[in-house]
Structures are given as C-alpha cells and as structure tokens.
C-alpha cells in the first residue's frame, strides 16, 4: 500500500516495494504509481522500487503558482531524501524522462544511473504541435473516454488497441477515483513545451540507457537518439515494434533489458 511522504512543500503519494538496490520510477503526463505496476510486480524481487505521483497527478496535490520541470525534479530529489535514499537508479518515461534528466543535472549525487524511455532534449515543431493539440483536446473532448481514446492513439501500438489492452486501460482510468484536473494536465504540458536540456546534457555523468519505440509517433527515435548522442557514453536502443510505452505493452522484455543495464551498472560501479 502507498502512503503520503512529506517531501519539501508537498505530501507526495509514494509506493515502495521490494528489497535490493534502490530504483526511482518517474511517470509522465497525469500518470500515477499505477502506470508502473508491471515493474512494481516484476522487479521487486531484485530491487527496492519507489514510484510516486507527480505534483498535480493522482493523490499528490498541485500547489498554487507556477509549475516547471526543475520544480518537479526537485520534488523527486526531496522524495529520495525523505525516504533516506542516498543514490538510486532512476527510470522515467515521456515527461518523466525529462524530469529524470533534470534530476541528474540538478542533483547528480542522487542518480546512480538513468533509463530514459521515449525522451527528447527539446520538443521539435512536430512534438510541440502534438503537445498543444493534447492541451486543448483535454478541455474540449466530449467525455473522458473520448479524450482517452484519442490520446491513446499516439501512445499505444495498433496491436494494443486491437487486442483489447487499450480498452482495459481506459476502463481502469475511468474507474480511478483520483482524477487529474484539466487545468493541471495543461499546466503539466506547459512546463514541457519549451523546456530545453540540449546544451546541458553533456554534463550528465550517470551511466545512461536511452530507449525508443520504433512505432512511437511522438517521442520518435531521432529525438531519443539526440539525447543519447549528447550524454557521454550513453547507450541507445530502439524497440522497433513498440510505441511510446513498451514498459506496459511488453513489460517482460522491457524489465529484462533494464535489469541487465542496472546489473551491469552495479558491477561497473
């Protein structure tokens, strides 16, 4: 069971499972602890996994005032310190991968390694237009289901839509009692649309694995590659048949690859 953890000026909803080296999991737009369920279930025999709801998502409140990626990276740092973790393997997807980049830049002592899934250094015009589309879609969609059905077209593969996995996810989201307010979705998106780590990525010293989905139409492989090329000695791999969130669609494959990276990092460390 999760609990609220006091970290900085927030009470952050946090779930901790397992035993072993510490891992921090950072979600993307509106995603909560539950988005990492396949990792919480599949890796807890080897790692102590810490997942949390970002500010304004799920059970973590959105304070008044501006929202920035830097602020959310500081939230993650405050959470690690609050649960007495001096250094963790950090994995983030989509917006969570950008938070993870900032965490490694602002608090390098806390980051043992980085896994960046579906990431970018700065949104290109295509991705920026898509983010702005989602920003207004969430406000004008005729229902929550209609929004999710449209949004998920760019998040999951056709395979997941056709085999019923996406419909099951939609049912779970619709039943989730801790809804994210429309304005909080928009504030989260606003924080990322013009955020840029391009010139600072070479300062990241943590061992890094960048993963891209070959069928991802948002954080496309060239954007992910641009991150890997700027982080010294980063590994870059494309999961050719996957989209934006392979850690959910093919969790066994994703978990095995990330576990191998963490084990190698631990050996070298």
TrEMBL record:
This is Alpha/beta hydrolase. Residues 23-246 form the AB hydrolase-1 domain. Keywords: Hydrolase. The keyword Acetylation does not apply. It comes from Streptomyces peucetius. GO terms for molecular function: hydrolase activity. The keyword Hydrolase applies. It comes from the Bacteria.
């Amino acid at each position: 069971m999760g609990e609220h953890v006091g970290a900085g000026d927030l009470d952050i909803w946090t779930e901790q499972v397992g035993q072993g080296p510490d891992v921090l999991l950072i979600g993307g737009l509106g995603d909560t602890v539950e988005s990492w369920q396949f990792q919480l279930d599949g890796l807890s025999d080897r790692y102590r996994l810490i997942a949390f709801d970002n500010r304004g998502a799920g059970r973590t409140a959105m304070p008044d005032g501006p929202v920035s990626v830097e602020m959310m990276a500081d939230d993650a740092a405050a959470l690690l310190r609050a649960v007495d973790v001096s250094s963790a393997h950090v994995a983030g997807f989509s917006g969570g991968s950008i938070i993870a980049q900032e965490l490694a830049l602002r608090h390098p002592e806390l980051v043992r390694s980085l896994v960046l899934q579906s990431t970018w250094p700065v949104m290109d015009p295509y991705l920026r237009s898509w983010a702005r589309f989602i920003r207004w879609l969430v406000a004008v969609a005729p229902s929550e289901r209609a929004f999710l059905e449209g949004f998920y077209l760019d998040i999951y593969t056709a395979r997941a839509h056709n085999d019923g996995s996406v419909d099951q996810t939609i049912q779970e989201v619709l039943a989730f009692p801790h809804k994210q307010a429309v304005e909080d979705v928009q504030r989260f998106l606003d924080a990322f649309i013009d955020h840029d780590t391009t010139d600072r990525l070479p300062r990241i010293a943590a061992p890094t694995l960048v993963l891209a989905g070959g069928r991802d139409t948002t954080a496309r492989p060239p954007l992910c590659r641009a991150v890997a090329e700027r982080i010294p000695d980063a590994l870059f791999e494309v999961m050719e048949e996957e989209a934006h969130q392979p850690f959910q669609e093919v969790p066994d494959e994703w978990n095995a690859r990330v576990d191998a990276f963490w084990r190698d990092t631990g050996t070298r460390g």
